Amino acid sequence: MGVAMRTFTRKGYGRIYVQNYEAINVVKEMVEDMDAFEYDYLPDDFITLFEEYPKLVFTHKFCDLDIDELTARCWDKGVPIFCFDNGERECFASL
Fold it and tell me: What tens digit of pLDDT does each residue of 60-80 get?
């Protein structure tokens, strides 16, 4: 039995945090490279600066991307990211 892929919760709340605006585009490109179909479900403003923490965004159908792999790929490119998923369908810190 393998390790289960960690993803964002379907119709839940989460966000990807980065250090600067340039990193937002790098992460978007990485998501598209990993899964072009899933990229189409990437919510607007889902990737944002660390300063926006803990404000979260509704994930809707953006829920099939391996966020551990995304994190590793971004860190390998020198772009530290923090993927946060509250694991719930309710959130009091959402936009």
Answer: 999 999 999 999 999 999 999
